[in-house]
Write a structure and sequence with these properties.
Helix content is 72%, strand content 0%. It starts with a helix and ends with a helix. The relative contact order is 0.09.
């Protein structure tokens, strides 16, 4: 697997951790804060933009 493949795996793991609010023991709970809500919204917007660009590139538009 190339470095780009490994980077993709890491990005997926970090995105899942960010969206679900997984945290290590002994740390503060941030899953229900407004900052986490903003981060989830920003992640959703980025995913929509990337999906749109991939669709446009695939359809030749």
């Amino acid at each position: 697997m190339t470095w780009l493949g490994w980077l993709g795996v890491v990005v997926l793991i970090v995105a899942v951790a960010a969206v679900t609010g997984i945290k290590p023991k002994g740390t503060r709970h941030v899953a229900r804060t407004s900052l986490m809500t903003g981060a989830r919204l920003a992640l959703l917007v980025i995913v929509i933009i990337v999906a749109y660009l991939a669709y446009r590139a695939r359809s030749g538009g």
